[in-house]
Design a protein that fits this description.
Blueprint lengths: L16 E5 L4 H11 L3 E6 L11 E4 L1 H9 L3 H5 L2 E3 L2 E6 L4 E6 L3 H5 L4 E4 H14 L3 E4 L3 E7 L2 E6 L4 E4 L1 E4 L6 H6 L7 E13 L9 E6 L4 E6 L4 E8 L2 H4 L4 H11 L5 H8 L5 E8 L7 E2 L2 E3 L2 H4 L8 H18 L3 H28 L6 H27 L10
Parallel strand pairs: 1-2, 1-12, 2-8, 5-14, 12-19
Antiparallel strand pairs: 3-7, 4-7, 5-6, 9-10, 10-11, 13-16, 13-17, 14-15, 15-16, 18-19
């Protein structure tokens, strides 16, 4: 059944109003699905502008892209990103020690891995949600939650109070909604890596357009994607957290250059050519939480199961969450039932990927000469062994028309 606006009829749980806290990936995507159900939805984002500091870039895997396709956004997102042909792994001397080829993704999975600036993705999703009549408010920081009969109330730092039938925490690894709703939940764990990144024009860098090069440096890990138009998108991982958090960005640049002084020279060229360093971000994850919901509040995305970037699945899992949770809400008789179904369906998949991401991140740690020699020779085998898990993650499909779990 649809109403006069072409929206799907109300969910069985009789939810009419929803508050979505977080304007990143999960929040606007959830808002889009809720609007499909005819739910009046308000997205609350603490940042004062959609152009705030939201990170560098990320990969959208085929399983995440299928969610965007369900929403009719695949083309709009593709126009802002670039297809990733594959990943080449190199040692500190620049020798290729392994390759992951993505060029058959369309045939195998229906979509090809895509790289996109995080800010561009957030903006596209917010614009789409607003275009489908979701209210999107910036500078709206939630400081307190309260439940009253039949509704949940969010108080903003401005003093304003907003009420709805349900509230969703899509506000990331440091979720305020999680702290307010599940105060005994385990704190996110530091993975041991700190991330810095940037965008540069460095024509002398020996990078093939559309390919990502991952370098196991002697003292730190470096990744670079050759985007169309000659721009290099890059990130640097290492455990020198104090050095990376120096207040002077030029101190951070000097630290990165020092850490890569014995690695392939093009890395230093890229770092020097970068006008503005982005970050730093200490990378955290959440291996597991006892529960993802309480009362009329439910968490999703990184707020429920934060994963480090080392599996390339964080954004795609958030997109999947939004579809599954909306589907469960559509088919359940009460919000709490929908939340329980959602958690039961998603927990096993997402926690397995969080564990794999932690394992991948551990492999980025600097290795001594003997360990590096072993890694260089064994990496092709490790990549083949990991190919099955990656294929399972990429091939995962969630049908909107199917009944909720």
């Amino acid at each position: 059944m649809t109403n006069s606006n072409g929206l799907a009829g109300a969910p069985r749980s009789r939810v009419r109003r929803a508050l979505v806290v977080g304007g990143g990936v999960a929040g606007p995507t959830l808002a889009l699905f809720l609007r499909r159900l005819g739910v009046a939805t308000t997205v609350l984002e603490a940042r004062t502008s959609e152009r705030g500091d939201v990170g560098a870039f990320l990969g959208l895997a085929p399983n995440g892209l299928q969610v965007l396709a369900e929403l009719g956004l695949a083309g709009a997102i593709a126009a802002r990103g670039a297809a990733c042909q594959g990943m080449r792994f190199e040692n500190a001397r620049g020798r290729c020690i392994g390759v992951i080829d993505h060029r058959d993704h369309v045939q195998r999975y229906g979509a090809q891995m895509m790289m996109i600036r995080r800010a561009a993705l957030h903006t596209a999703l917010i614009e789409a949600a607003a275009g489908r009549a979701a209210e999107c408010r910036f500078g709206a920081r939630v400081v307190a939650l309260d439940e009253r009969p039949g509704e949940v109330v969010a108080r903003l730092d401005s003093g304003e109070e907003l009420a709805a039938d349900v509230l969703f925490g899509c506000d990331g690894v440091r979720s305020q909604v999680r702290a307010l709703t599940l105060p005994d939940a385990p704190a996110p764990a530091y993975t041991g890596l700190c991330d810095v990144g940037g965008f540069a024009r460095c024509p002398q860098a020996p990078l093939e357009p559309g390919w990502t090069v991952m370098t196991f440096g002697r003292r730190a890990f470096f990744g670079a994607f050759a985007a169309p138009g000659g721009e290099v998108w890059w990130f640097h991982n290492n455990g020198a957290r104090a050095a990376m958090q120096a207040p002077d960005p030029e101190q951070r640049r000097a630290s990165i250059l020092a850490l890569h002084r014995d690695d392939s020279p093009w890395i230093a060229d890229v770092v020097r050519a970068t006008p503005t360093l982005l970050g730093p971000w200490a990378l955290h994850d959440i291996m597991t939480m006892p529960r993802w919901h309480a009362g009329r509040v439910c968490l999703l995305g990184d707020a429920a199961h934060a994963t480090s970037p080392s599996a390339g699945q964080g954004a795609s899992l958030a997109l999947e969450d939004a579809l599954v949770l909306s589907r469960c809400l559509r088919d359940a008789d009460a919000p709490q039932e929908a939340f329980a179904r959602f958690e039961a369906e998603r927990r096993g998949r997402v926690e397995a990927i969080v564990r794999q991401a932690r394992k991948n991140g551990d492999g980025k740690a600097p290795a001594g000469p003997v360990a590096a020699w072993f890694r260089d020779r064994m990496l092709p085998l490790f990549l083949r062994l990991g190919a099955k898990a990656q294929a399972e993650a990429f091939a995962h499909r969630i049908e909107w028309a199917a009944p909720g779990a």
